[in-house]
Amino acid sequence: MVAAFYTGYDAVRGVIRGASTAAERHGADLLHWEQLFGIAPEHDLNDIFARLAVIAVPACFFYASMHFVITPGVLIWAHWRHPEAYRRSRTVLGVVTAAALIGFWLYPTAPPRLLAGAGFQDTVAHYSDWGWWAAQDSAPRGLTSLANQFAAMPSLHVAWALWCGITIYRLAAHRGPKLLGLAYPAVTVLVVIGTANHYLLDAIAGALLWWAADAVIGALTTITPTGHATAGQDHPGRQDVTSPGPAGPTPPR
Q1: Residues facing 140 on adjacent strands
Q2: Hey, what's the torsion of the CAs at 77, 78, 83, 89, to 10 degrees?
Q3: Which residues share a beta bridge with 151?
Q4: pLDDT (tens digit, 9 = 90+) per residue, 191-240?
Q5: Fold of domain 18-140+149-221
Q6: What ranges do the domains of the chain cover?
Q7: What is the model's pTM?
Q8: Three-class SS of residue 18?
Q9: Is 162 left (phi over 0), alpha (psi -120 to 50) or beta?
Q10: Helix axes 200-222, 20-36, angle to 10 degrees
Q11: Strand partners of residue 133
Q12: 77 — phi, psi (to 5°)?
């Protein structure tokens, strides 16, 4: 799965490398529509992050690392501790990732930080001296050529975070991990918008992408072939041969 994802990501990156004009136009359009409907929190959140290093620095570490750690970690945990649920979880993650790559190809989008004159601070670049990422993006130093700068729509950060959070919530046995699972995607949304790496509409699209993939895969995994009973159910009309039949009259002695 990892090899397939990287191959697809690299192919999309190569295709849209020269699409900066279209990507900037798409980004400006998203911001315009948000402002038109009064749902544009990008500037307010980015201003808070720009003023408060105590928030910005942890957010930069979160943005640059958590999706690389938490996502495979949850996948390995599901395979190890919950093998009965692993196949569905893995399939949902694969579908989400593949669909996002198609979105990057069809609708390349520059993030807020790359919109010229829009007034956003590139928070991750501003605090690059604090971490291992390069000033150009969140990729490790020396690997910036592998990054896709125009992969904002949909937000794969948000889609993956929702996959992780809901998988943990469904499979964890205790309340604490369940609550952490629910908190993870919420914090991710705040971070990706506050660091000017995504628009609110990107986050919504990422959430809808996860929801659609989870719903479709969930429906497909519950379908059973016609004529076969699901586990734990008898065939209709079949009498259990192990159960005693109705008692007859007692023979005379």
Answers
A1: 133
A2: -160
A3: 109
A4: 999 999 999 999 999 999 999 999 999 999 876 444 343 433 444 444 44
A5: Vanadium-containing Chloroperoxidase; domain 1 (1.20.144)
A6: 18-140+149-221
A7: 0.80
A8: coil
A9: alpha
A10: 90
A11: 140
A12: -60, -45
SS3 letters across 29-95: HHHHHHHHCCCCCHHHHHHHHHHCHHHHHHHHHHHHHHHHHHHHHHHHHHHHHCHHHHHHHHHHHHH
**CA–CA separation, 17 vs 183, rounded Å?**
35
Going 77 to 79 to 81 to 84, the CA torsion angle's sign is positive
Q: What percent of the chain has pLDDT over 70?
A: 74
Spatial CB neighbours of 188, under 8 Å, sequence gap ≥ 6: 62, 66, 67, 157, 158, 161
Token pair recorded at residue 234: 């008898």
Angstrom distance (rounded) from CA 78 to CA 72: 10
